[in-house]
């Protein structure tokens, strides 16, 4: 586009002027062309460097976003893990508490039975359900059943 403008407006005039400058002041023209080449080369390198920096910046942003997404995903997985395993933990604690309560209740029952056997102790224990004492001891019941079956 610029060359069309120069050809149309200046035509041969510009070409003759440049030819004259090249004859009269060749050093100046050579210097200008050399300087122009350096400037153009530096501009091209700058442009390439900007492109490379932009690519590195974009990659860095992408990596940062990916890291944030992975952290967020890890947090969500951790939350789900805790949510899923919390009932198991509380159930295990509940089971342990139940076992402990059963063991402590058994020891209290055993202690109460021992106190029933001691003279001068009351047979009424408020914490435990009352048992009706049988007239037969457990050993006597078994013998009476055996004797009745052997007699027949």
Q: Kindly state the mean pLDDT as a whole number?
A: 75
Distance between the ends: 133 Å
% residues in beta strands:
under 5%
| Main sheet characteristics | none
Q: Could you tell me the number of beta strands? A: 0
Structural class: mainly alpha
The helix content is over 70%
Run of helices and strands: HHHH
Q: Nearest-angstrom radius of gyration?
A: 53 Å
Low-confidence stretches: 139-148
Number of helices: 4
**Judging from the principal axes of the Cα atoms, what is the shape?**
rod-shaped
Organism: Cnephaeus nilssonii (Northern bat)
GO cellular component, one term: Set1C/COMPASS complex
Protein name: DPY30 domain-containing protein 2
Family: Belongs to the dpy-30 family.
Can you offer a commentary on this structure?
One of its GO terms (cellular component) is Set1C/COMPASS complex. Residues 131-152 have a biased composition (Polar residues). This is DPY30 domain-containing protein 2. Pfam families: Dpy-30. By secondary structure, this protein is mostly helical. The chain is built from 4 helices and no strands. Helix 2 (12-24) crosses helix 3. The chain is rod-shaped, with a radius of gyration of 53 Å.
Write the layout of secondary structure elements.
Elements lengths: L1 H8 L2 H13 L1 H92 L20 H14 L1
Helix pairs in contact: 2-3
């Amino acid at each position: 586009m610029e060359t069309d403008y120069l050809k149309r407006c200046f035509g041969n005039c510009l070409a003759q002027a440049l030819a004259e400058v090249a004859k009269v002041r060749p050093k100046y023209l050579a210097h200008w062309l050399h300087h122009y080449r350096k400037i153009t080369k530096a501009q091209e390198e700058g442009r390439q460097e900007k492109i490379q920096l932009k690519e590195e910046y974009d990659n860095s942003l992408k990596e940062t976003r990916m890291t944030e997404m992975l952290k967020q995903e890890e947090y969500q997985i951790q939350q789900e893990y805790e949510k899923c395993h919390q009932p198991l933990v509380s159930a295990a604690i509940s089971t342990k508490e139940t076992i402990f309560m059963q063991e402590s209740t058994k020891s209290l029952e055993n202690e109460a039975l021992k106190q029933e056997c001691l003279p001068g102790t009351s047979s009424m224990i408020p914490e435990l359900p009352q048992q009706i004492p049988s007239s037969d001891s457990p050993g006597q019941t078994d013998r009476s059943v055996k004797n009745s079956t052997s007699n027949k």
